[in-house]
Fold these 4 entries.
Entry 1:
Amino acid sequence: MSTTLVTGATGNVGKHIVSSLARAGLPVRALVRDPRRAELPARAEAVAGTSPRPRRWNPRCAAWRAST
């Protein structure tokens, strides 16, 4: 099963997408500025990075198949 990368995962829309995917039991990675401060569901994996600078994204984001 593919993992979904959600950018803006702690924003108004992104947090609902992350929660819905996690509740459905789907693998989800949440791109956040500070993983220590991100309030995410237990099933979501927080990954440090920012959308405008994809080259700085954590290497764990390298093989995503879908993003929002």
Entry 2:
Amino acid sequence: MASDRALLLLSAPAYAPPMRAFLSALLLSACVLSTVFGARISCAAAGVPAPSEPRMVQPESLEQGFIIVVTDAPGVASSEYPIILASNHNGWNPADQKMKLTRRSDGKWQIDLPKPALDSRMAFKFARGSWERVEVSADFKDIDNRQLPLVDAAALKPGEKPIIELSVPAWRDQRPWETVQFGVNPYRKITVAAGTIRRLETTGGGAVTARDVLVWLPPGYDDPANAARTYPVLYLHDGQNVFEKLPGVPGEWRADETAAQLIEQGRIEPLIIVAIPHAGAARASEYLPVAAVDGVTPRADAYADYVVNEVMPRVARSLRTRTGPENTAIGGASFGAVVSLHTALRHPGVFGKLLLESMPVLARDRLVLRHFQAPGPAFPPRIVIGMGGREAGPDADARINAAYADSASDLRALCIARGVREDNVLLVVDPAAVHNEDAWAKRLPGALQFLFGRR
């Protein structure tokens, strides 16, 4: 064939170097054309690297890690308030000094990251030390969590780290209409759809000494006709996101709207919901019973003791709660689900119902799941397990998303193996759902009916 003859001519020793250079250039041009028109010319045989097919992968999957470069368009980041990457891989800590970006000589900010220890795709936002200084859109609106774009692994040299360039158009503390930062006043009014919110001061926990829990009381709680009535209780973690949407968070659980509607419809009995706020930068530490995240000291034992020995007695002293495990539930999402199950097992017989949403168990060879597989007490007798079909992200590797869904089935099997009847474990996997508050809010009506439905 013509290409074979060209290679034969190129390899012949009779041609002088200029002629060889000419033929080499000619063949190189033919090689390039071959990628367009499909001609069968062997580029490798001519000493020309064959064009490689793109191989798009998640940066988090690269053994060599990756580099993120950020342009601070407003130019307000400083040494006092540097840019920090807050993500699901560091407990959403906006002040994590290990995730601080360094300012370069060209004014951009950079961080060199190793391959993450967690297997999930990174969801993140940039902040400057707190959620009051989180990134927003150019028109100062809250934005969804970021995800890293896919990179072409075939274009990288061995060991080469891809450089991912991003830009922050504005920061929340630049909003012209906010003269007082949201969240500065911990006693701000929280508007709910129905019912009332009360605050109860508590002390203790794995990392903080004092915090107010938010308690939702159902409509009619204060009516004289109900003065002798008692109510079952649901304890939820990440309490900041249960009744309202905070800056930097995609959504809220909408627990007040959902519970009030189901009560009005007669689908569930009236209940009290206690929302326990997380500890901010120490959230992952308080919620994890094992070292599933690098640099995070597990303090879930102390947090579980705080819930049972401090929060629950405080609630019981102040409100008309119905006692017994059959009237007491605990739940949460992500690490909040982990600490819910851990608290129930550390204090057996206290909680009769569990709500476990998007519980992450894949990291470090399923370390969290193996922790709960260890011999121990029976699980609470009624459990809801929720998971999204796109937990790692809508563009994540399908195998990772499938692994999350499979892990929910494994968790259900573990519940049954530990004494829970099959019909008392509700598993809900929403194929389109991702890992955020909107997904958990969508599944909350079914969970509440399963746990507190009138039977």
Entry 3:
Amino acid sequence: MLRNALLAGLAWLGLVACDASTPAASSSRATGGDADVRDVGLQEPGGEDAGTLDASVDGVAMLSDAGGDGEDAGADEHVATAADFLGDWAGIISVPGGREFRIILRIAEDGDGGFIVTLDSPDQGAYGIPGRDANIDGSRLQVGFPLLGAGISVAREGDKLVGLFSQGATLPVQLMPTVIPPFARPQEAALVRDYEIREVTFDGGAEGVTLAGELTLPEGNDGFPAVVLVSGADASNRDMELFDHRPLLVLADHLTQAGIATLRYDNRGVGQSTGDNEAATPEDFATDAAAALRFLRAVSGVDATRTGILGHTDGGLAAVLAGEAPAFNVLLAMPTQPAFEVLMRRSRDVGALQGTPEEVLDQQASLQSQLFEAVRSAPSREQAQAAVVNLLVNAGLSPQRASDEAEGLTRPWLLWILDYDPLPALRAVQTPVLALYGDKDLIVAADANAPDMEAALDHSDSSVQVLPKLNHFFQPATTGGPGEYADIETTFDPAPMDIIAEWIADVTM
């Protein structure tokens, strides 16, 4: 049972590429054959009776000799080429115990004669998971997904792919060509950007870092209040794009229409910005936010004395640490607790929403606590990685999978932030602060963070608000679970955008 808890736990430790805030993740809604997989009410697999769908698989070695007696028997007669597999394919995996989960396999040419494979597992909250060591062996395509501990081996049979999927248990799978309708994103579709828009570049917070972004200036006279918009994900682009939502684009438009100039930018090493994203820490992102503030203040038409910073999640921390005496800060879903506390709470809340038994949640929390302690107490990154590998192998992962996870758990960003307490920096803020949280946020729980935020801020114009029925990205939500993000059509609820615009106008009068 502990191994079943492990996969869900690692996914919500921020190690696995299915973290909803990761911009590289690309969600899809797909149909396979006559059945629309969007309409299947499924749960995340779990429990020993569900075939132990855990993190014990590194690739597809165990699948390489599959076939003959399975559903894909007879496929060996055809020698396959990449053209047999190109496209998007969707199917439903049925596991012992009666549970089901969807997978979407995406296969595209890479331009160099090879192909790229990614996997979506919507019911595990995983999107855009990269395949590794994809190869065609006779009639069969084989590829591993180390970040999910999964592998797949399929052959083309008529208009479908048939074979085996393995994630702890090895199960038959049948995939049909998908039809992927475009997401409905009505707010973005309705944007009328009838104001000045400039593509800009400026020096970042370190030598060799050039940040690229977009400046928007309202119509009218000079002397605009202005705000830098800082995304919450370390590898995010200027729009904080996820699941075809672009929340910072929608927010920038709303603010510009309200008479507030905005600057948003690709994080270092992302999009058109240069620099090393992998090596960057929250402190580095704060120096970039400071550089963005200096640049915006110098723009003709902007009132430098009425210019501040808005940050989402860790972008809020960057805003607080940036210095430069901004006129104001807006902090959206910013944690006030050390990261290990936020991540532990996140894992438990998401697991509980998915129906994970309390006993399993306790086991998962115990392992997470051990992993964090190993990282926090190690004198070097190399020793931290060795300690993490040892813990994960003892928990049931293979050495290769454990090594992959250890690499993520010892990223410079996480090593920096794991024990960092934001409260002293918040108490030192001398400017007005607007802090907003959604009461459906399962990523940064409002009940655990908003009270400390309110206690830390002492400027008379500061305001802390918990907004009802909004999730981590300030979308109207039912449960707040990550599985809803893609299906919610609203990118950014108008109510918090109005609050932000009106508050900035008030404190910069």
Entry 4:
Amino acid sequence: MRAVARASGLKLGALQYHYPTRAELVCALATSIAGQTASNVEVYCQQAHTDDRGLHALATAPAYLSLASASWRRAVT
């Protein structure tokens, strides 16, 4: 938690106030990544497929979700 607080520029107490446990922090992170990825995929699917950023979101979504899932498993075990 200290490393996350330091990297994000937050005070440790502020981070722990919002995310009392590492599991809660990882779950929030995974939820955020999943939401951003879903949004990117939705936008890409609605476009005329001329924007490579949407294609990138489609291609990397499984990797992000897998990483978040692995981090969550480590945090709660």
